[in-house]
Amino acid sequence: MVHASKIILRVTAFTGAGLGGWFAGKHFERQQYLNDEKDNRASIFSNVNIKNMPCLPIFGTVSAATPIVPAENQADMGAKLSVQGSRISQIMKYGFPGLDNVRSFDDYVISYDRRNRVAHWVFEHLTKERVKPNKLVDRSKCEFTPDKSIHPFFRSENSDYKGSGYDRGHLAAAGNHKLEQTHIEQTFFLSNMAPQVGRGFNRDSWNRLEKYVRTLTNVYKDVYVCTGPLYLPKREADGKKYVKYEVIGNNHVAVPTHFYKIVVGETEDHKLEMEAFVMPNAPIDDKAPLKNFQVPPESIERAAGLLFFDRIAREKLNKVNGKSVCS
User: Fold this and answer.
1) Which pLDDT score is estimated for 75?
2) What is the predicted pLDDT for the residue at 180?
3) What pTM was computed for the model?
4) What element of type H or E holds 280?
């Protein structure tokens, strides 16, 4: 009996030592990974003076699909700032709506929702010169491409859309990025897409809204555009409200119930005017005026859980949805 007890104690001791070693190893691996991550972030931002980088998030991180190369001397925010960093600063001049999985491309910035496989928001900066068609840019050469900067667990694929009955609808409109071939091609990353009803919406009313936004570059020297999905509640037969939306494909890409677009135009004399739109992801009568879809900007903020253009005090806006703002 005593001999048996000794054997049990020895087995227990060896088992405990083995488990302890395994946990210690896993802890070491995790710590090493975190240290590597810390070192990587430190190397990326080692030459960046964050305080001098306007509109970059301080408490979040920007994971750039196209890397941001910091300038040698951040004190001069002019020509010495990298082209990519300078462009991001232009696009995000009036603030980030949120800091979840922010990625930057050459001509737009995106916050990606890994759970729904659709962006939270996409930000663009348009001018008359930037939306002017370039004869060397050919949209027909563009292909819908999975965004490899997104972890494969969370990205959408073309196969998700195949046979779904939905279009791969642009959030950053391809027509807004015809300055360079690379710019328009980057709008075809699937991270910039959302499932949209085709006829009556994506190809019609939503397209009208995109074209309208481009015409605003004839009115304002700078046009800032934020676009994204909404998942709005609907009252069911039992009298209760539910948020219900379809998912498509093996990756369960969420089909938004609505889409929003918030636009800020800046005049030559620096006056700011805002327009906010929400459209249902459904066929819409093409004769319906776009004004029918204008809503108070704060209603979108509440629904999306985001604050848009938070660097602009509302009392600084000259107009909202075409109406003068009382001081």
Assistant:
1) 43
2) 96
3) 0.77
4) strand 272-280
